[in-house]
Amino acid sequence: MKDIIEGFLKFHSEAYPERADLFKGLATQQNPRTLFISCSDSRLVPELVTQHEPGGLFVIRNAGNIVPSYGPEPGGVSASVEYAVTALQVTDVVICGHSDCGAMTAIANCTCMDHMPAVGSWLKYADSARVVNESIEHLSDGDRIESMVRENVIAQIENIKTHPSVRLAIREGRLSLHGWVYDIETGSIDALDGATNDFVSLAEHTEVRAYPIQQLPVAV
Q: Other C-beta atoms within 10 Å of 89: how many?
């Protein structure tokens, strides 16, 4: 804990004073425009990757960047999604997977999870991605894992669309969904193009989104 406490002391004496006005404004309100759902992996820091200050993102993190389909017993993820979309009125939701994901690697390799039953149960929310990924012929183990990461992002996009608050916001034209995969080694992001169901470079396709599909103007 020593380095954690030392980090806080540095924040309190250096970083906080530089942002005092920002924190003063955030003391009684927040107005993030994006709900960012990512893996809990320590190597992916949403605020760092997107260069956002405190208050800029409403973040949900869990093993495998999973969003359970809406059900009669909503958990913490469902409650957080509902709050972000209904109370905070976010305009965008990003579901972000990443390279070398331990959760997706375990699924892709059919790793026995008897020693971590809670994790095994949680990862069943990625079953639809697993089934699709198993139907694909992969060139290598690495390719199978990379494909699993992408299929899981697609599956979680579908899951979040079952949430009433999300369906309503999409129906009213005030919410877009984005599926990203962050590469730890290169710092690059591939984004899901809902029109083709392919992942493309976000740096080269900044307007791409997973859903709704952006309609192009019709030539006359």
A: 13
How much is the pTM? 0.94
What crossing angle do the helices spanning 127-134 and 141-160 adopt, rounded to 10°?
140
* Distance, CA of 220 to CA of 217 (rounded, Å): 9
Q: What angle do CA 29, 62, 204 make, to 5 degrees?
A: 80
- Beta carbons of 180 and 94 less than 8 angstroms apart: yes
Q: ∠ CA 191-40-70 to the nearest 5 degrees? A: 75
Q: Give the integer Cα–Cα distance in Å for 102 and 189.
A: 18
pLDDT tens column, 97-118: 999 999 999 999 999 999 999 9
- Structure confidence by residue, pLDDT tens digits, 16-40: 999 999 999 999 999 999 999 999 9
- Supply 201's token pair: 């470079």
